[in-house]
Amino acid sequence: MGREQQQVSYTVEQLVSVNPYNPDIVSDLENYVNEQVSSQTYSLEANLCLLRLYQFEPGRMSIPIVVQILIKALMAMPASDFSLCLFLIPEQVQMEEQFKTLIVLSHYLETARFRQFWDEAAKSRSILEVVPGFEQAIQAYAIHVLSLTYQKVPRPVLAEAINIEGLSLDKFIEHHVANSGWALEKSHGRSQLIVLPRNEFNHPELKKHMADGVPFKHVTRIFPILS
Description:
Elements: H1 2-18, H2 26-39, H3 44-56, H4 63-75, H5 81-87, H6 91-94, H7 97-110, H8 114-123, H9 125-128, H10 134-149, E1 152-154, H11 155-162, H12 166-179, E2 183-186, E3 192-195, H13 204-212, H14 216-220, H15 223-226
Helix pairs in contact: 2-3, 2-4, 4-5, 4-7, 4-10, 7-8
């Protein structure tokens, strides 16, 4: 089974690489989207190729397939895949209700408004449940965002960001303590603190040490971006 999946994956990627503007591969690419969903894999390149082909032949566009592509792109955050895919979707299609919902969800994620995101996602379950692993992917993104901001995150903040409470949250934290370098600490109040692994964002002194070791030619490339 594994070999068959690898062969299909390789064949589709090869088709995209050799002739990405061939309309004859639309069906193959659509099947590949379904395979990505069922196997919880992901290929941005293949999905962008399909969206481009839909631009040339809008009559062949499959709305359910496009929805799945956008959901998979949301799951890839913090990468900008969602915006890349949305750019290739006609504006009139984006005005359909399910696409407007996905755009709102994307905005909430980009602005780290996780409580609003989970509230909206709960109302849109029928759209999102077609793609397995969605919740877990967004939880991983939320933890990524928290790790950029917090050295020690209060338990209620974590609970809101990942939409888990009670015993389920206890198990979630225990798993990450055992596997992700998290640690637990009691705060002065009642709330539990989760100590997150050190990185250059939640410990600025690490960034300073890194900058000290960056060659000057690399630093000068940053100046145009900052200006």
